[in-house]
């Protein structure tokens, strides 16, 4: 079948889907938005425009929809689309909580339509570099992975600053960062979830969080995001008993660091440093650490839509399974509970 996509919500992400889905052979059949400005933009860009989702869903030429509306509308729009016989793709987060997701999945199953979520950050090159190092044992036994995303831009924008619309950074980016860790190590069980969540600049919604996942494969994953940390730290750090990997930014600058010559025992003399006398944390002697380039990976965000096309034509399974989406939402709920109780939450 030809995938004929209706875009419900023609804001920034709606436009992104309109521009990029056709690269996978998807036809943009129609778009809708309640905002007259966005309606005019869509008409000027040559798209068939509807002023409401209900009108778009009555269009028999549309067989699939992507929901790029504020988070709190995902459940309502998903169920309406399923009842209209349309396959459903939601932007992330797929739902506000696990209960909503379960209701959405049930509606799609009842209607016999395909249901998935646009977790496009599974195709980020920076994350895939870390995943490749993990999969291929490049760092030996990894004991910690840090995923950090910092910005000095401060305040959030539009509906993202309001709790009732599903605003906040855990819903906006936390869902991606958690999904990346779970996608990287799909067989690992989560032993516990601990979280610190703060409102630094915003009254209603979170703009800082630190989530710590202890996994049964020996890895402790640290996920940290802030809209107001003004000196950026590396996007990724992964450390194992055979080396340390650092990815500095989305541009994938960084290296793998290894010991040039492992010190089997520390020298007998104490070294005087600016921090005082020490042996363990004295400067590493010349040649003690060597660097090598990061592994290379090829990726393309549009592979998400290529997979959707294959799924709807019976050629592949969905790369974004609702069970995986549900697990991420469950971690998010555990993080909120941990932040509220100031205790680690036992998980799987």
Summarize it.
GO terms for molecular function: nucleotide binding. With 348 residues, this protein is α/β, with parallel strands linked by helices.
What does this structure look like?
Residues 4-116 form the Gfo/Idh/MocA-like oxidoreductase N-terminal domain. Pfam families: GFO_IDH_MocA, GFO_IDH_MocA_C3. Residues 130-245 form the GFO/IDH/MocA-like oxidoreductase domain. One of its GO terms (molecular function) is nucleotide binding. This is Oxidoreductase. The protein has 348 residues and is α/β, with parallel strands linked by helices. It has two domains: 4-118, NAD(P)-binding Rossmann-like Domain (Rossmann fold); 122-252 and 294-300 and 329-346, 2-Layer Sandwich (Dihydrodipicolinate Reductase, domain 2), CATH 3.30.360. The protein contains nine helices and 17 strands. The chain has helices at 12-20, 36-44, 53-57, 74-83, 98-111, 125-135, 169-184, 303-312, 322-341, and strands at residues 4-8, 27-32, 49-50, 64-67, 87-91, 115-118, 142-150, 190-198, 208-215, 220-226, 236-240, 243-247, 254-259, 271-273, 276-278, 289-293, 345-346. The strands form three sheets. It has a nine-stranded mixed beta sheet with strand order 16-13-12-11-7-10-9-8-17. Helix 4 (74-83) runs parallel beside helix 5 and helix 5 packs antiparallel against helix 9 (322-341). The two termini are 40 Å apart. The mean pLDDT is 94.
């Amino acid at each position: 079948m030809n995938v004929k996509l209706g875009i419900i919500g023609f804001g920034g992400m709606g436009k992104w889907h309109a521009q990029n889905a056709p690269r996978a052979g998807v036809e943009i059949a129609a778009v809708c938005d309640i905002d007259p400005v966005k309606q005019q933009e869509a008409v000027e860009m040559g798209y068939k425009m509807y002023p409401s989702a209900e009108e778009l869903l009555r269009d028999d030429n549309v067989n699939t929809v992507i929901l790029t509306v504020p988070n709190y509308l995902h459940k309502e729009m998903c169920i309406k689309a399923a009842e209209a016989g349309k396959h459903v793709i939601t932007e992330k987060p797929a739902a506000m909580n696990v209960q909503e997701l379960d209701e959405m999945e049930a509606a799609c199953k009842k209607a016999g339509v395909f249901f998935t979520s646009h977790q496009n950050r599974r195709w980020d090159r920076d994350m895939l570099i870390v995943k490749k190092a993990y999969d291929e044992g490049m760092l030996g036994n990894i004991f910690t992975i840090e995923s950090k995303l910092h910005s000095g831009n401060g305040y959030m924008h539009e509906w993202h600053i309001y709790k009732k619309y599903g605003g906040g950074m855990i819903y906006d980016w936390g869902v991606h960062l958690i999904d990346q860790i779970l996608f990287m190590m799909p067989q690992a069980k989560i032993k516990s979830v601990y979280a610190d969540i703060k409102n630094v600049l915003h009254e209603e919604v979170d703009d800082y969080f630190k989530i710590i996942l202890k996994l049964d494969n020996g890895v402790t994953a640290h996920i940290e995001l802030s809209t107001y940390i003004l000196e950026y730290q590396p996007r990724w750090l992964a450390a194992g008993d055979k080396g340390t990997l650092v990815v500095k930014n989305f541009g994938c600058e960084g290296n793998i660091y290894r010991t040039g010559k492992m010190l089997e025992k520390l020298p007998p003399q104490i070294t005087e440093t600016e921090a005082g006398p020490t042996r363990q944390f004295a400067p590493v002697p010349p040649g003690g650490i060597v660097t090598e380039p990061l592994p290379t990976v090829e990726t393309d965000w549009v592979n998400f839509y290529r997979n959707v096309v294959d799924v709807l034509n019976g050629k592949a399974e969905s790369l974004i399974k609702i069970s995986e989406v549900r697990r991420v939402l469950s971690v998010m709920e555990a993080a909120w509970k941990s932040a509220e109780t100031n205790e680690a939450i036992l998980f799987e």
